[in-house]
Amino acid sequence: RNVLREAIKSLEITGAVHSTPGVGIVIQEFNTDFFLSNLIYSISDEDQLHKEIEELRRVLELGFAKDAFDRMTEKGIALLSEKVVTMEELFNQIKRSHSSVYGVKFAETDAAFHKILFQDVDNRLLKSIIEFFWACDRYYKVKTTHSNMELTVEKHQRICHALKAGSYSDFYDAMQFHFNVGYFKR
Asked: Does residue 94 have a pLDDT over 70?
């Protein structure tokens, strides 16, 4: 009984099963969000966690860049452009007010941009992982500087310009620029 009880507790911790008094043990649908969020507990060094998340984001987003480009619609480009305009407006508000509220909105807009960029890629796991990356960033991100925010706006502008021009090579270069130039050092 003790071995079985411990095994069931382990399965509950991983989200594989759910125990309900009076009902019993029910096998849960696999939940990548729960699984991925548990991974952050395995890395106790916060700087190392950020470094590894940034490396994974770079590899995944560049790896799916062609799919994202090929599936991008005019509506998607318009939504991305709106996010860039919002980022510019928030950056200007941040410069004027020094309010952390605008910084949170800036990060949320950045996250929304990347979610839109990959929304039409036919890979649910990719979308779940991107959501996980942004959840980690939201909870663990250190403050960023005005110059980093300004560069972030420029990076997203380059991506939008390449999409509007319909040039995959420019788009891929913009994505490379996004991940390789002035990326946050934590």
From this structure: yes
Distance of CA 59 to the CA centre of its chain: 13
Please state, in angstroms and as integers, the Cα–Cα distance from residue 174 to each residue in 89, 100, 159, following that order.
21, 28, 5
* Alpha-carbon Rg for the chain in angstroms: 20
Packing angle between helix 100-117 and helix 146-165, nearest 10 degrees? 30
In the predicted model, what is the mean pLDDT of residues 127-144?
A: 69
Instruction: Supply 121's token pair.
Output: 């890629």
Q: Are 27 and 17 in contact (CB under 8 A)?
A: yes
* pLDDT-derived band at 121, boundaries 50, 70, 90: very high
Is the separation of the CB atoms in 102 and 90 below 8 Å?
yes
Neighbours of 158 (CB within 10 A): 19
pLDDT category of residue 39 using cuts at 50, 70 and 90: low
Cβ(62)–Cβ(121) below 8 Å: no
Q: How far is CA 88 from CA 93, 103, 149, in A?
A: 9, 12, 9
Q: Which of 25, 11, 21, 62 is nearest to 171 (CA)?
A: 62
Within 10 A of 137 (CB to CB), how many other CB atoms are there? 17
